[in-house]
Write a structure and sequence with these properties.
about 40% helix, about 350 residues, twelve-stranded mixed beta sheet, globular, alpha/beta
Amino acid sequence: MRKPIIAMTMGDPAGIGPEICVLTALSPRVTDKVNTFIIGDANRLEEASKILAGVGKFTNKPTIRSITSAEEAKFEAGVIEVLDLGNVPADLPWGQLSATAGQCAYDYIEKAVSLAMDHTIDALCTAPLNKEAWKMAGIKFPGHTEALAALSGSPGSAMMLVNKSLRVVHVTTHVSLEQAIKLVTRERVLERIRLTAESLARFGIRNPRIAVAGLNPHAGEGGLFGDEEQKEIIPAVQAAQSEGISASGPWPPDSIYARAANGEFDAVIAMYHDQGHIAIKMLGFDTGINVTLGLPILRTSVDHGTAFDIAGKGIAREQSMIESVLVAADFLLGSNRQELR
């Protein structure tokens, strides 16, 4: 069986993306399982490589090889191949917000989706972008998930966060809390339950046990603290059950994540961004990764930001990027493990 080909997008060039891409491309855990190349800017990656060598991250600095198409990649040991878009100005500072960097990050995503849709690559793994930089650049999407769905022509998608003991799928993500509450509807919750059940089955988890979190404290306490559970969430759970899906809830948000992490459930449906993200990150900041569900392509990502405060210093940790690539690899290689890395 040939090794899968996974492209890593470099993310915001002012952030830690270039550094963690270099370190991930060299990791034996990655190179033993898949072939990788980076979609980004060769000069920026060369600069990142020098920074990392300067702080002792590796003894022999790798060769950065620029390629103009994925077909040119040779996947040689000690060589990091870059599908070079050449879009990063030489004087772009590390750790600073800019429209230029935001546009660069979007360009990498656009190219990666094109390659994935053409089946030139088997999956893409994305380094972090900065949403404010995207806005400055005039990019209409609030984040990766929304852009990937639009670029791949997907009618619906969702974010699943994964770490060693927990999977969380969000009903809403990059919207205000006020808007998130309005978006908790029967139709939207049911769609997320269905998507989670279908996707986990693809990961080898048959008849997954899906816990649905409530929106309000104590899942509304029978309407005492809000009626969204009774009006929207309970009907969605009942509809899913009628379709043969092992869904239950709504469960109190302050306890359901711990129960799932202890093995009682295979995934939790979170009602809004922070409800799910806090649970994942408390269990391990470096181990959480993002899998986008509902796309015609396979995409995983780190579950952290651009970390402008440490960018360009050679101290960024690559563990989440490595795990992102390995989760994609396991899926592509047909792993049926119940526990994703």
